[in-house]
Amino acid sequence: xxxxxxxxxxxxxxxxxxxxxxxxxxxxxxxxxxxxxxxxxxxxxxxxxxxxxxxxxxxxxxxxxxxxxxxxxxxxxxxxxxxxxxxxxxxxxxxxxxxxxxxxxxxxxxxxxxxxxxxxxxxxxxxxxxxxxxxxxxxxxxxxxxxxxxxxxxxxxxxxxxxxxxxxxxxxxxxxxxxxxxxxxxxxxxxxxxxxxxxxxxxxxxxxxxxxxxxxxxxxxxxxxxxxxxxxxxxxxxxxxxxxxxxxxxxxxxxxxxxxxxxxxxxxxxxxxxxxxxxxxxxxxxxxxxxxxxxxxxxxxxxxxxxxxxxxxxxxxxxxxxxxxxxxxxxxxxxxxxxxxxxxxxxxxxxxxxxxxxxxxxxxxxxxxxxxxxxxxxxxxxxxxxxxxxxxxxxxxxxxxxxxxxxxxxxxxxxxxxxxxxxxxxxxxxxxxxxxxxxxxxxxxxxxxxxxxxxxxxxxxxxxxxxxxxxxxxxxxxxxxxxxxxxx
Length: 488
Ligand SMILES: [Cu+2]
Description:
Elements: H1 3-7, E1 28-29, E2 35-37, E3 46-55, E4 63-68, E5 76-80, E6 84-92, E7 100-102, E8 123-124, E9 127-129, E10 135-140, H2 147-153, E11 156-162, H3 164-168, E12 179-189, E13 195-196, H4 201-206, E14 212-215, E15 218-219, E16 222-228, E17 230-237, E18 244-248, E19 253-258, E20 261-269, E21 272-274, E22 279-285, E23 291-297, H5 305-310, E24 315-327, E25 350-357, H6 361-370, E26 382-383, E27 395-397, E28 402-409, E29 414-418, E30 423-427, E31 443-446, E32 451-456, E33 467-471, H7 474-478, E34 482-487
Copper (II) ion binds at residues 356, 414, 471, 473, 476, 481.
């Protein structure tokens, strides 16, 4: 009997009575996340203030949250390739934190991982170079042992990189009109409507599973009026642990970009499976139907395993799009997006193997605790037999080398993330990745067999500021399923 079978029938979490009773019955307006557009130039330091706040997710009750310049989540920052971003990140959450720039190709000392702690009351002022192509990235807490709780409470935001070709591209790009940023998360709320984050040992093992979908900080479904024509959705799965299977009510999902930038050409898929930490950009043709909807199936697999286990509707609507009389973007879905050659595994000169491990035994569990990993009262986790340790370097990479990283797991489906790079997926759980995952990525799914990525590291990460590789189920990361590597 495997762990999955053992878990079936365990306790369901308490649900906010109003949130899931009739998911299609009401739609709230989509909350547009305030966007700071810096593509025209940067004249002063960019202030990000991490603060405690209260926020109404749509239950008419204020929940205690963290925010970045806002009551929950941060702004959307829109920047351009070639810029250097002079941040002042001020921490006022009453606890030590960090802000990691997920997806950026930057040196280890400005990466914002667990070594760049920002004490409560302190200001962190990294100058972050934007070297890479147009891509949707994000930023979130990466505080060792506290990433899950701090990110859940709201320490996350989106960073859109544009470049000359993306600014010129014949694509929808009017923010809040035909170009929307969607941050998808799962939450639980207590009977009074306050956001909760409760972890039992079982729940901790699978990572936190909420029963209510939240879009940009508002309980779904949400609705948005859009003009006729193509509409662009830039989507981030910012759940702590849930995989989300996205589909449209009418028509295919037309994917144009993955984590690290545009695909070579649009890919039509019946659905896309997004792990925590992944980003995809999709186009919706609102010239065809007057109403369309983005639906979310949040089972780990087609049977909706997690949904049945933890409560909540396995398929729900996240966003309803209603066409207005206005004429919007008049272009067609492009046939060509970017020049991407297929990954060539013979480019690699080094191969490394990583096994993600969920059950490491009592001896390692004691060490994991001593090394400030946080596992609640669940089992400690590890990679290659070692829970995360802040002063141990696990791998040493030579700058400019192309490598193959092979990842396997002992149980369950996990999303694996590498800092400081984008990579190409050679195989995913022993199979060819879906077409929409064959472009630039920094996340790969790992279940059965090997997942292999082709990766090159071009920036320095010294002993004092190593990069991380880890499971992006945040409770697993906090519990030791993380390692660190230098580049030089
Ligand atoms: Cu994991």
